[in-house]
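Standup notes
- DV: blocked on the single-chain target, sequence here:
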Amino acid sequence: MEIKTAINNVFLLLWLMMAPAWANDTFDMDAFRADYESYETLATEERWVESLNIAKRLYEQGLEVFGDESEEAAALSYNYAMNLIRTRKQEDAVPVLEDTIDIYEAVFGKDAVELIEIYQLLGDSYSVLSESRKKARSYNAALEIVENHFGRESLNYAQLSFHTGTRLNITTRSTRAERYLEEAHRIFEELTGRDSSSTAYAAFELGRYYLGRGKAEESVDYFTKALAAFETMEGPMPDLGLTTHAFLVQVYSQLDQPDLATQHSLAIGRLTPSAPDQEMNPIFTVAPQYPMELAMAGEQGWARLEFDVNEDGTVSNIQAVDFEGGEAFEKSAIEAVKKFRFAPRFVDGEPVKVEGVQYVMRFELQLD
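- DV (later): unblocked, structure below
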């Protein structure tokens, strides 16, 4: 989200430097001034752990001295909330952010642009705390202000909608993520074009959303759109481009479309050349079936397999090298590895077979 608070901390520092030494028996302006200078130095150097207690002290003293309807209090409450977030103390940040909203409303008004970032930060904090309803309420409050100031068809609205959908998708897999991401993708595509980075990232996130919901066909559609845009970008393909290829290997394998999965396995191998001695790691795996008789007996174990990775990234010539816990583990592991997919190794621009790749499959029961 590009919209930022209009609070001017530099102005606050200048004000403190020029302010008279108040004749106040209970407040030491010189100490307050020195604390703020220390905080500014630590914040500039991103030493957030060291600045936290200073930010808290400034916030508490600022409310007492300036009152809770002043720009100074707004700046100090924002600083303290951000310091808490940067030290991963979201639970402590929530009440401070709620106080910051009250102060901002008093200073700037209930529909002020300055409130957008604060509501977004509050939504992010609730996301970490798994407070679904409060999270949604905070994001919607931010979106309402964006719509009132910039319009629902604006880039500002799309950016915040994308942020909201992404956070919902990552933290809770909420079905509401679909609405936010679809709207963001539509606006980005209309305003910036189908090949823009914003449209591509929204399409990628929608692909992830639909994959997580078990909607393979929809995920293929959006991953394909994202990949087409990533491939038009100048310079090396973004990391998300490679990740998109990997997701498409996964989806096409699930859809039992091996030829299409192979296309993307080859693309990953071509884009990420590996050394002859580099370990081969699968890009698509299948969990083995836990043998029922061994599970009932409480048996755990593992199987070490050796196999070849073919030129198309499929697996062949699978053999058990060693196992522990029962022969059924060996058979189950072999059946699972048959479906694995690798990015093939390339030599002089051509894919080659790699022999003797090993993989350990572990069978562990979830014990209470």
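- Follow-up: Confidence is low (pLDDT under 50) at residues 1-8.
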